[in-house]
């Protein structure tokens, strides 16, 4: 076997010394990290496996056939593969993604935000600027339902959405889900109620977006939905910014200042300098931190090393990305 790293400097951080040594010992990994230019100069022509992460370059079908003719699989130690996977799959190369590993911290982050939002954390913490404001904030606190029998809306029940649902179970929340691809029997197994977007936005205290990132979901969440949010409802986005019409969200937040938006992703990212997202007081921005960070990134490379072992030993794998899956994956 011969394998190579293809991508940028994130590879060093994601794989680390220990996992890099494992790849050298078990998969014949070459010591260099190859850029796209390196690959197009013929430096990976005899490689069988590619290991990568964020920064994986896109190759055309013809480039794969000419410069990566022996590659059998790409093991991607990160989440979304939409930027490069289509061409590899078309060329007959298996693509594996650590979406299962990257889903864990995103779900953990989301659950934390939901629990805080149900207690009014965002609105209340921003309002307490003096002693008098403390008492006004406490009065507002009593308009929130807390974390018992409260309606929560989950938009998209893919890997992350399902993890969020399962992690929320100890809190005894009533979870409503919008996902046209979720079978009724699976919804029953998860203990959720399948609902329309209109019902979720009009009845849920906190709403979390986990839609797949594709052309069909661009601009899917707009004013007709945001305007239905309850006065003290919170909208959380860890999906993709393109799924939201941000001007519509801002309009709905301005119309009802007790509404809240917690946005970890935007479009573009970061927002333009004059974006109202910076100045709308009931918008809370984080710089795309929900995914794997710090020590969490090691989990992704470990998932892909395990997957590579299964694949090379002819055993069933868990995280292959198929052409059909790309239609609904983030």
- Domain module tally: 2
Kindly report how far apart the N and C termini lie: 31 Å
Q: Which CATH-level-2 architecture of the largest domain?
A: 3-Layer(aba) Sandwich
How are the strands of the biggest sheet laid out side by side?
8-7-6-9-10-11-12
List keywords for this structure.
330 residues; alpha/beta; Rossmann fold; 2 domains; 7-stranded parallel sheet; 5-stranded parallel sheet; 13 helices; elongated
In short:
This protein has 330 residues and is α/β, with parallel strands linked by helices. It has helices at 10-27, 36-40, 61-67, 85-90, 99-118, 121-127, 131-141, 159-168, 184-190, 197-203, 223-226, 246-255, 296-312; strands at 3-6, 29-34, 49-52, 73-76, 94-97, 151-155, 174-178, 193-194, 206-209, 234-237, 260-263, 283-285.
How would you characterize the overall build of this protein?
The chain is of the alpha/beta class. The chain contains 13 helices and 12 strands. It has 2 domains: 133 residues, 3-Layer(aba) Sandwich (Rossmann fold), CATH 3.40.50; 183 residues, Rossmann fold. The strands form 2 sheets. The protein has a 7-stranded parallel sheet, with helices on both faces. Strands 2-1-3-4-5 form a 5-stranded parallel sheet. Strand 3, helix 3 and strand 4 form a beta-alpha-beta unit. The longest helix is centred in the first third of the chain and has 20 residues. The mean pLDDT is 95.
């Amino acid at each position: 076997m011969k394998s190579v790293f293809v991508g940028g400097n994130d590879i060093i951080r994601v794989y680390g010394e220990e996992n890099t040594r494992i790849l050298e010992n078990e998969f014949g990994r070459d010591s260099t990290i190859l850029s796209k230019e390196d690959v197009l100069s013929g430096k990976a022509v005899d490689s069988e496996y590619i290991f990568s992460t964020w920064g994986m370059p896109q190759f055309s079908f013809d480039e794969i056939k000419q410069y990566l003719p022996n590659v059998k699989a790409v093991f991607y130690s990160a989440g979304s593969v939409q930027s490069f996977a289509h061409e590899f799959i078309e060329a007959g190369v298996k693509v594996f993604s650590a979406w299962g590993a990257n889903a864990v911290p995103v779900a953990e982050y989301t659950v934390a935000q939901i629990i805080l939002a149900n207690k009014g954390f965002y609105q209340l913490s921003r309002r307490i600027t003096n002693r008098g404001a403390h008492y006004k904030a406490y009065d507002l606190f009593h308009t929130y339902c807390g974390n018992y029998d409260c309606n929560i809306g989950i938009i998209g029940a893919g890997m992350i959405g399902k993890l969020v649902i399962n992690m929320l179970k100890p809190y005894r929340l009533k979870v409503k889900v919008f996902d046209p691809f979720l079978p009724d029997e699976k919804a029953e197994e998860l203990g959720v109620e399948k609902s329309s977007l209109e019902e979720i936005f009009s009845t849920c205290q906190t709403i979390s977006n986990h839609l797949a990132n594709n052309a069909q979901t661009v601009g899917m969440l707009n004013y007709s939905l945001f305007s239905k949010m309850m006065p003290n409802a919170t909208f959380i986005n860890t999906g993709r910014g393109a799924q939201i019409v941000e001007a519509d969200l801002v309009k709905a937040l301005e119309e009802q200042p007790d509404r809240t938006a917690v946005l970890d992703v935007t479009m573009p990212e970061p927002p333009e300098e004059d974006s109202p997202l910076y100045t709308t007081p009931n918008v809370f921005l984080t710089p795309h931190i929900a995914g794997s960070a710090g020590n969490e990134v090691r989990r992704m490379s470990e998932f892909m090393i395990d997957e590579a072992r299964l694949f090379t030993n002819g055993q069933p794998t868990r995280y292959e990305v198929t052409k059909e899956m790309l239609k609904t994956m983030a």
